[in-house]
Design a protein that fits this description.
With 215 residues, the protein is mainly α. It is built from eight helices and three strands; from the N terminus they run ββαααβααααα.
Length: 215
Amino acid sequence: MEQSPTDGPRWRRGGDPEFSRPLNFTDAVFAIALTLLALDLRIDRIAGNADSVTAMWQALVDLFPQVIAYVVAFFLLGKYWLAHHRFAARLGAVDSRFLTLTLVYLAFVAVLPFPTSLIGGYEGNPLSGVLFALNLAAISGMETVMLLHAQRHHLLMDGASAQMRRWELLCSLAPAAMFTATIPLAFVDPTWMLLSWLVFGIGLSRWSDRARPTT
């Protein structure tokens, strides 16, 4: 551990065993959150004859909204984990403020199974869609805050240009803007809101590739 004159204690990759602790903790929280998403995929009770294939099929059909919510949330959390994995690979050091930001970030990751359960169980209620979108926007927003902190306090190993850093911040902000901007669709139909993320996500991915600086 070294002491920064302005940022407090700092732990460097390879030199401090404490460097890997927040990264391992992050992986553990993601693993638990991804596992908890599956807990709502259960049939509490089959109406009618439990041995009837028709009754079982109807119960599975009734479970479809929870399955959709699970798939969407698992996919998005998986994307967040991959993004954090790429981000962590670039870190050369962490400081105490970065650890605090990581805890706030993980608080939003850990709570995602709750709005996922709401939108799966009450897919017709706009508030369930709003909470789901806000939770995802918060996770994306915290990614941006962590990236900005790492850039400003020289925690990253690569010497990215100023143009590249701006592009990275814009790409990081885009998902939060998308989730927030599509919230009104929840009052039309939460399913349309979920589908819009697919359309906007493809568009943002293509924009990101075109706008990426060459140096």
